[in-house]
Design a protein that fits this description.
homodimer, alpha/beta, seven-stranded parallel beta sheet, about 50% helix
């Protein structure tokens, strides 16, 4: 992963600085730059940062965007605006994919986030190599500043994970999966119990069977689950056996 | 897109309710449910909601999770925890893909978010059909509550965009899906039958119950399948009832 710097341009609310820091840290980012923050440092920034206080404390403060991004090989600006002059525009996810394929770990890539109310000005957007758009609702697309940082950081993190894990193994489960034979034996056991307890759909008996087979067939049961279900069936059988034994005894006494 | 309900379980900070509402609206979601919020309504919730005040105002408040998700065909719980018994676990993006391929626009899908400090309890997670994990840093993975809502909503929105673009047809199923209440009633019926037939794992009785809940929870049963299973349970009950009747009669004749 390239060296990502998050740059907040003139944030008004210190809470958003803390929120952005926390969002960054949860996604493995640590480099935060502030351009003319209205209030900083501020207890509200510290409070909202929660466990990411270290990121707030080592945030660099600058007077200008140019100073904040000086050593960057790429500068991207987040923008909701459709601009008069179109700029190379990517979604947040496309941007993550792009910089991972394009840049090396030591390359510094800066991502600018504008003011809470007005975003980045056209002049500021003109400083950027790329514009990033976060997909959002046409009816209300106004994301909170720290939320925007969270999403961009999330996409970067997921992209990094994907690159790392491309040949990884999937979900782990605590028990080995049941074999076809185990599931089949269970289904036959079930069928014999259903006969015994007198279950049948009088109108469409065969259909219920097929539906049960489909139900238990699509569930990918593990070995233990099949054993539990068979244990239940055995208990039901025992109960019905003792009932029929009683019936047998009753009959015997009638004719004894 | 299915009908997504965001369910916040016992949120402490009203600011997070407002932040979640705004996050939802930017991603086209509108249905918010609150289970025992500590402070609600509250001016801080309204303030943080910004342009999503309508979502805060029409949020539904419930006493229990079961009531909040009653009519849902799928309940998913967000979880950071590695649990003793693993549950079907998906990342936020996988979940978005899954529900778009699986469910229809009118199907209600609920996503639970736990308390700011402790998340969801194990018992609450056991109510869920699926668990959702938001990929995050190993060093500090503690996302703010509203941020978690933002990411899940973002993944759902991006997936909806993609599906719309692919203009694909999804898997068709012949019967309507079972609701949470239907499945829950079935599980309670099953439990009472298991008691009746004398089934229990003597060494770890509670574990078998949880495993059965997980088994039937991840299968996404339809209405007819639940009816078939309940029909079977009713037949088993009848059988055991007649047996105990016989026992009663036997006793009566002893003392008659």
């Amino acid at each position: 992963m390239p060296d990502i710097r998050i740059v907040l341009v003139e944030p008004s609310h210190p809470g958003n600085i803390g929120g952005a820091a926390r969002a960054m840290k949860t996604m493995g980012l640590s480099s935060l730059a502030l351009v003319n923050p209205k209030r900083f440092p501020d207890p509200q920034a510290d409070w909202r940062a929660a466990g990411a206080l270290d990121i707030v404390e080592k945030a660099q403060v600058y007077d200008t965007i140019s100073a904040a991004v000086k050593d960057s090989v790429l500068v991207a600006g987040t923008s909701a605006r459709t601009r008069h002059i179109p700029w190379p525009m990517m979604t947040s996810a496309e941007f993550a994919e792009y910089i991972h394929s394009k840049f090396k770990p030591k390359d510094c890539v800066s991502v600018l986030f504008g003011r809470e109310d007005n975003g980045l000005t056209n002049d500021e957007l003109n400083l950027c190599n790329r514009h990033i758009r976060i997909p959002s609702s046409d009816l209300y697309g106004s994301l909170n500043l720290a939320m925007s940082v969270q999403i961009v950081a999330y996409d970067l993190f997921c992209q990094a994970l994907q690159v790392r894990q491309e040949d990884s193994d999937s979900e782990t489960w605590d028990k080995p999966l049941a074999t076809f034979a185990e599931v089949n034996d269970f289904l036959e056991h079930l069928q014999s119990v259903l006969l015994r307890v007198g279950f049948s759909d009088p109108e469409e008996p065969r259909k219920a069977e097929i539906r049960l087979r489909r139900l238990f067939g699509r569930i990918d049961m593990d070995h233990t689950e099949v054993q539990i279900l068979r244990g239940i069936l055995t208990h039901i059988e025992k109960g019905f056996r003792s009932e029929s034994d009683l019936n047998d005894n009753a009959q015997k006494s009638d004719f004894g």
